[in-house]
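Question:
Write out your own:
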Amino acid sequence: MRPPAVPDRREPWIPGGLVGDACPKSHDGWIRVLPALPEDWHEGSFHALRARGGIQVDATWTDQTVEYTLRCSKPTEITLNVLGTDMGRVALSPDKPFKGTIRR
């Protein structure tokens, strides 16, 4: 049996659950971009995180907006949710990234 994970106190520590909750989630044809972005994360970004189906997700946010881009290697259709707002069904194409902006 392995001992429980203990953060290395020499490194800044961020609870894994908090970071994981803010990252994209994907299942059953849904992709949720920043489903639980903490209010005190005033700005930030991530690039090339992978969702199910090989879809690449990028996002950049400020206090006012979230900009996101989805890329895929084969045509696919998903249901998109950004910051808890349902964006509906989205057709993704490998030759054209899907980009959007939403107010925060």
User: Anything to note?
Assistant: Confidence is low (pLDDT under 50) at residues 7-11. The first strand starts at residue 25 and ends at 27. Residues 16-103 form a domain with the Immunoglobulin-like fold (CATH 2.60.40.1180). DSSP finds one helix and eight strands in the chain.
